[in-house]
């Protein structure tokens, strides 16, 4: 990790601590709406991204996001400070995503295939680079989607949301070593899947 990456990581942690403290202070003073607002503004985008990548359905991801914040608001008084609020929110979202996947699986015959997640290309890319990046992103999204939902959760939390394994343990309810093993087993599977699609990782 380079110096700039270390600085960015430290700044990110400091920002997260400020967010957590602002939300906890509002909760301690009985201002639940203010705490919810802080959390929605701070974590809403990353929670939506996680839900979207888990479910590959924008409307369903939006529904799960709303349910996540509704449940958080309802259960603020039960938050026991054993983890960060961020981990607690991702735990709610992870469980609601798994519920939605189970429900969709039961009704799979009624649903059309879902579009792949395509990340927004960087502005400095040429049209050809954009096309290649979009193709790789589509292929990777398809490969991630093939993973078992619990493995997919671990991969997305680790590599997209940047959770540590102890934080992931709080979200998923499994030991860090178990989650680390899931991610380690998933990486060669993803590599093979990409190579089969003509992408050299």
User: Mean pLDDT, as a whole number?
Assistant: 83
3D shape: globular
The H-and-E topology, N to C, reads as: HHHHHHHH
The CATH top-level class label of the largest domain: Mainly Alpha
Q: What is the C-alpha radius of gyration, as a whole number of Å?
A: 18 Å
- Contiguous low-pLDDT stretches (5 residues minimum) are 6-10, 109-122
Number of strands: 0
Describe the main β-sheet briefly. none
At the fourth level of CATH, the homologous superfamily of the largest domain is RNA polymerase sigma factor, region 2, helix turn helix motif
How many structural domains are formed by the residues? 2
Question: What is the CATH-assigned architecture of the largest domain?
Answer: Orthogonal Bundle
Beta-strand portion reads under 5%
Overall helicity: over 70%
């Amino acid at each position: 990790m380079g110096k700039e990456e270390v600085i960015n990581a430290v700044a990110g942690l400091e920002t997260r601590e400020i967010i957590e403290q602002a939300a906890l202070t509002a909760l301690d003073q009985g201002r639940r709406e203010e705490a919810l607002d802080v959390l929605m503004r701070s974590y809403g985008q990353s929670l939506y991204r996680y839900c979207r990548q888990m479910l590959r359905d924008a409307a369903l991801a939006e529904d799960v996001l709303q349910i996540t914040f509704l449940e958080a608001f309802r259960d603020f008084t039960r938050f026991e400070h054993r983890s960060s609020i961020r981990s607690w929110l991702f735990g709610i979202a992870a469980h609601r995503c798994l519920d939605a996947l189970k429900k969709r699986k039961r009704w799979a015959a009624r649903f059309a295939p879902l579009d792949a997640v395509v990340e927004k290309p960087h502005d400095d890319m040429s049209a050809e680079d954009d096309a290649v990046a979009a193709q790789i992103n589509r292929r990777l999204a398809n490969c991630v989607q093939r993973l078992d939902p619990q493995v997919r959760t671990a991969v997305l939390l680790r590599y997209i949301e940047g959770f540590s394994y102890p934080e992931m343990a709080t979200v998923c309810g499994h030991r860090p070593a178990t989650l680390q093993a899931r991610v380690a087993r998933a990486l060669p599977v993803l590599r093979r899947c990409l190579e089969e699609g003509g992408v050299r990782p």
